[in-house]
Amino acid sequence: MRSAAASATIAGVTEIRVLTDDAQYRAHNTLFRRAMHWGPPTDDQWKLTQPSYEDGRVHAAFEGDTMVGSTQSFASTMVVPGGAKVPHAAVSRVGVRADYTRRGVLSALMREQLSTLPDPVATLRASEGRIYGRFGYGLATRVRFLRVDARKAAIPGAMTGSVRMLDPDTAEKTLPDLHTAAGLGRPGQITRWQGWWVRAFDRTGDSNNLVTVVHSGLDGDDGYVSYKVSEDKDFKHHMEVEDFVAANADAWRDLWIYLTRLDLIDTIEVDAALDDPLAWLFEDPRVVYTKDVFDQVWLRLVDVPRMLAARTYGQAAPVVVEVRDKLLPANDGRYRISPEGAERVDAAADITIPVDLLGAVYLGDTRFSDLAAARRIEGTRFDEADALFASPVAPLCSTFF
Ligand SMILES: CC(C)(COP(=O)(O)OP(=O)(O)OC[C@H]1O[C@@H](n2cnc3c(N)ncnc32)[C@H](O)[C@@H]1OP(=O)(O)O)[C@@H](O)C(=O)NCCC(=O)NCCS
After folding, report:
1. pLDDT digits (tens, 9 = 90+) for 109-133
2. Is residue 249 predicted with pLDDT exceeding 80?
3. DSSP sequence for 175-229
4. What pLDDT sits at residue 205?
5. Pocket of ligand 1 (CB under 6 A)
6. What is the CATH number of domain 303-357+369-389?
7. Is 290 a residue whose pLDDT tops 70?
8. Ligand 1 test: best mutation among 13, 123, 131, most atoms within 8 Å of CB?
9. Span from the CA of 131 to the centroid of ligand 1 (angstroms)
10. Residue 52, Cα to own-chain centre: how many angstroms?
11. Less Cβ crowding at N or C end of the chain, within 10 Å?
């Protein structure tokens, strides 16, 4: 971690500092919110936001004494294909004051943040698709927004386990551990930090209507769903699923039986992985309608050798991949990928790929052959590379940050 004194100077004008005190954190949050065209945090909003400011992980750009740019990260771990968990930085609150944009402030913040991150991988959610590729982030997961016609969505048969509703105090004590135990099944899923849960347990305004139901199977609690219901009109109600966690297929099916048998609910909306099998629960698969598919997580391999070694690979003949990374040249090199793992080699490359696009294929969402078809990468033996990097389940990050 760097001290408050640590800084980097860009063109003698902008300075990047690591913030350390609460007043600066609030100014940082205000700057970010204003960049997003929101007002500054109210005292109540700040109470929910302040716990997510972690010392050593908050960067700001200054021109003289004026704060002009913000970024920060939250410490967590990420699941990679094969199931290993690696330290992960969830990057967020990226903003530049509107009167300082397009002068390289974000570029300076990104360079400094990336070169000081203690984690081998970072992800973020992008407000616009053209911002982050240049900093080595590639689009790595996509999400489907589903709408379920709850009045027609009958699931035959009984539950195999049981469900129970939690009061809010019990939910606060139960969910963090249950999420860690049950919610990390797909590549791309991340553990949640304390500040994330503080916001999740907000009980003010609309949030006071959050309901949590836990599922128990043969081995105890193994999933939960949290949702909010609003009345559209005339006893027609709409449900938004806020959080859905299931460690196994029984928990998943039972929680959907619970949701679709609730009285007075017309529609249910939920975020799901691209390959989510929800439609197969119902006799009529059209009760599940895909409203939209959207890009979700952009992934930056900060330490390429470590990240390539962390995941497992499918069955195919080995492929040598040459990685190019303009911002972090220590990652430049050729890596032999085989079913046994990844190692740096001094051999001719089959495929040359920039680090942002390696981020796009890393979790298995995108294939090398798709990038080649789009003329984004060059080389040969894309089919073997596809098979090596394939993931049996689609990646997802169901923790919004
Ligand atoms: C997006 C934002 C952070 C960019 O900051 P900035 O200081 O203007 O970025 P830089 O000057 O360092 O730009 C670096 C490069 O990215 C490009 N770029 C920056 N923002 C871009 C955008 N929104 N769309 C397309 N290109 C963009 C710049 O043109 C520049 O390109 P170049 O190197 O070829 O000249 C800033 O415009 C902002 O705060 N926007 C509103 C809030 C927001 O969207 N935040 C991101 C949340 S995920």
Report:
1. 999 999 999 999 999 999 999 999 9
2. yes
3. HHHHHHHHS--STT-B---HHHHHHHT--SGGGGG-EEEEEEETTEEEEEEEEEE
4. 80
5. 35-36, 94-96, 101-107, 126-128, 130-131, 134
6. 3.30.1050.10
7. yes
8. 131
9. 6
10. 16
11. N
* Alpha carbons within 13 A on the beta-carbon side of 40: 7
Atom from ligand 1 closest to the CA of residue 132: 16
269 in Cβ contact with 240 (< 8 Å)? yes
What is the predicted pLDDT for the residue at 3?
A: 39
- 144-295: in CATH 3.40.630.30: yes
What pLDDT is stored for residue 13 in this prediction?
66
Do 7-119 and 303-357+369-389 share a fold? no
H-state helical runs in 311-378:
355-362, 368-373
Please name the residue whose Cα sits nearest to atom 12 of ligand 1: 104
**Tell me: domain 7-119, CATH 2.30.30.30, correct?**
no
Which pLDDT score, from 0 to 100, does residue 234 have? 82
CA of 128 to the centre of ligand 1 (A): 9
Q: What number does the ligand 1 atom closest to the CA of 97 have?
A: 39
Q: How far is the CA of 94 from the centre of ligand 1 (A)?
A: 10
Q: Binning pLDDT at 50, 70 and 90, where does residue 387 land?
A: very high
Q: Which atom of ligand 1 is nearest to the CA of 125?
A: 48
**373-382: per-residue pLDDT in tens?**
999 999 999 9
Distance 374 CA to ligand 1 centre (A): 25
What is the model's pTM?
0.95
